[in-house]
Amino acid sequence: MNAVPLSLLPDTARVESDGSLSIGGRRITELAAEFGTPLFVYDETHLRARCREAVETFGPGRAYYATKAFLCGAMARLAYEEGMHLDVASGGELHIALHAGVPADALALHGNNKSMAELRMALTAQVRHVVVDSFDELDRLDALHAEGLPVPKVLARITPGVHAHTHEFIATGQDDSKFGFNLGNGDAHRAIDRMRRSPSVQLEGVHCHIGSNVFEASNFAKAAEVMAAFANPLDLPELVLGGGLGVAYVEGEEAPSIRQWGNVLLDACQALGVRSHVSVEPGRSIVAAAAVTVYEVGTVKHIPGVRTYVSVDGGMSDNPRPVLYGSGYEAFLPRAVGASRSERARLVGKHCESGDVLIFDAALPEGVRVGDLLATPVTGAYGHSMASNYNKLTRPPVVFVRDGDARLVVRRETYDDLVRCEVI
Ligand code: LLP
Hints:
Layout: E1 14-15, E2 21-23, E3 26-27, H1 28-35, E4 39-43, H2 44-58, E5 64-66, H3 73-81, E6 85-88, H4 91-99, E7 107-109, H5 116-125, E8 129-132, H6 135-146, E9 153-159, E10 181-182, H7 187-197, E11 202-207, H8 217-231, E12 238-240, H9 258-271, E13 277-279, H10 284-287, E14 291-303, E15 307-312, H11 321-325, E16 343-348, E17 357-364, E18 373-377, E19 398-402, E20 405-410, H12 415-418
Parallel strand pairs: 4-19, 5-6, 6-7, 7-8, 8-9, 9-10, 9-11, 11-12, 12-13, 15-16
Antiparallel strand pairs: 1-2, 2-3, 4-14, 14-15, 14-18, 16-17, 19-20
Helix pairs in contact: 2-9, 8-9
Ligand LLP binds next to helix 10 and helix 11.
């Protein structure tokens, strides 16, 4: 088996003369010694380059970073500094973005079940857009208008009836979806009529998002076609086509770049006669390949004739994606990144259940031993953001590296953090 493909590693990843990996000019082995494991290491240059690529492709303020993929104050600030707006999907994400100093005018609030408190927060802050998802939400916005809150600028989330080729849990554009106003049954038109007549909202455009980790450009082109047919006669200023661009996680996978994806969408919109401003909301494609997670091996269990289990000091609490979606990952030794990987093992975490798997059938270098560092690439999206305290593990820290500097942007949780919310 081959060494881990360098194409899966962050932009500034380098193999040093001793065969070890550095990112942002810092050796992973040194970072692990300084910050401990498990550890999320993000390449800041990579993050900035992807944000810039999105902004250059779609235009300033036309690319919203979907913060659900990975959010902390430093990331919110970085995306905004690079010219992105931010998509927040809850009061908590809104709070973190505002707390980081991102202006409300650069934020769009999403959610299929926004509470009164979340909507009140968004209206009070005067976010750029509330993306309205349901008739019940319109009722809540009426109530808030009656309370005297500012009238929000809104987009209507449309469910276009386009089935994206991805995992069922992350496909959102098909008719059978909890999200948005369905086009097929007339709800979309009814919602637009109501919003146009409503004094509680100012309708600025329409929105769709067909799903996440989608690789086929034709899926996006189809959504653009359906949305253009719906949106063109409405003659509204904004059309948002969501996020969803897939990324390569394992050897052999290939995904379009943000620029290629953008060109497909923008060309399709132009050909379809779209006059609205076209915006997008990429999450995964901005952050996924920017990070690696670094673990330490704690046990190696050989079961002759069955398999080998290699256990690391994290697991489903820092990366639930293999368990949730059956997602594949690669692993490598940061001290010998070019080592060929001739052994097979199941890479597992330290949680008290057999389902706690990071890689079901990992290709590993020969002789991985207790105390080795192992890293998994492409963990920058939906890893830290979906992390939990299962088994009361403390969530790992996040370090941004750039030009030889390592900046701790989220510290490791402590046992005191674990009891912080308890009332005894
Ligand atoms: N916009 C909306 C309205 C969304 O619902 C999402 C993702 C995005 C944008 C960003 O999509 P992206 O560019 O990241 O694909 N936890 C799952 C992914 C869930 C995505 C939910 N919505 C995973 O780990 O694969």
